[in-house]
């Protein structure tokens, strides 16, 4: 089965392929499919945004499509990030700029109030119009400076006390095992494996 990943993010593509390894599926990105889609993320929930992207990719490519919407939710900044995480601070900022802005906003926040969580909702949309959602989350604490070179987005800022490392310090396999997207992908993989067995 070919699955179209409604993303141009190579980091996400690596994570999805690693999570689905061993299943008889081939994951292709928008670029690999030659599709020039711009994902519109105007919804008020992760599920709305993921579904819009998955449906648009499916309609354009004629293949079952998988899309995610994810973000970071910071306890001390309720409602400021979440579904707007990728646009935090405005369109001119890259990952590093958004990380610096978040650290500035959190500078005066005490250690015990620096809780945060990554949230991911995956939407899978089939050409017949059927769709489903798969969710995951990962809780941690916001660091006071980036830590680690791996991952993308806010990964260098979320510290995981049980592991003593940031998300950016995990390899892909370790990250997929515990991350918000990894948990959502594990749920998707379990469902997809059953579907493929029945075919």
Task: Walk me through what this model shows.
By secondary structure, the chain is α/β, with parallel strands linked by helices. The protein has one domain: Alpha-Beta Complex (Maf protein). Helices cover 32% and strands 23% of the residues. Strands 2-1-3-4-5-6-7 form a seven-stranded mixed beta sheet. Helix 4 crosses helix 5. The radius of gyration is 17 Å and the shape is globular.
CATH topology: Maf protein
- Give the averaged pLDDT, no decimals: 93
Q: Provide the low-confidence segments as ranges.
A: none
- Helix run count: 5
Spatial strand sequence of the major β-sheet: 2-1-3-4-5-6-7
Kindly provide the name of the CATH class. Alpha Beta
Q: What is the H/E string?
A: EHEHEHEEEEHH
What is the level-2 CATH architecture name? Alpha-Beta Complex
Instruction: Report the C-alpha radius of gyration, rounded.
Output: 17 Å
Tertiary shape: globular
Report the span from N to C terminus: 11 Å
- Integer tally of domains: 1
Structural class: alpha/beta
Helix content: 25-40%
User: Biggest β-sheet, characterized?
Assistant: 7 strands, mixed
Number-wise, the strands total 7
Query: In percent terms, what proportion of residues is strand?
Result: 15-25%
């Amino acid at each position: 089965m070919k699955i179209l990943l409604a993303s141009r993010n190579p980091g996400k593509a690596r994570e999805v392929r690693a999570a689905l390894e061993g299943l008889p599926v081939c994951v292709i990105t928008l670029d690999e499919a030659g599709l020039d889609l711009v994902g519109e993320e105007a919804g008020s929930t992760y599920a709305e945004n993921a579904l819009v992207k998955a449906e648009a990719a499916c309609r354009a490519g004629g293949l079952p499509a998988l899309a995610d919407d994810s973000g970071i939710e910071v306890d001390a900044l309720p409602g400021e990030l979440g579904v707007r995480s990728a646009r935090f601070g405005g369109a001119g900022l890259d990952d590093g700029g958004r990380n610096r802005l978040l650290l500035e906003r959190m500078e005066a926040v005490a250690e015990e109030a620096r809780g945060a969580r990554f949230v991911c909702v995956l939407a899978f949309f089939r050409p017949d119009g059927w769709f489903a959602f798969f969710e995951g989350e990962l809780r941690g604490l916001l660091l006071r400076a980036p830590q680690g070179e791996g991952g993308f987005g806010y990964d260098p800022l979320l510290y995981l006390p049980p592991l003593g490392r940031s998300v950016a310090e995990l390899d892909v396999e370790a990250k997929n095992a515990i991350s918000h997207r990894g948990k959502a992908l594990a749920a998707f993989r379990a469902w997809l494996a059953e579907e493929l067995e029945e075919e």
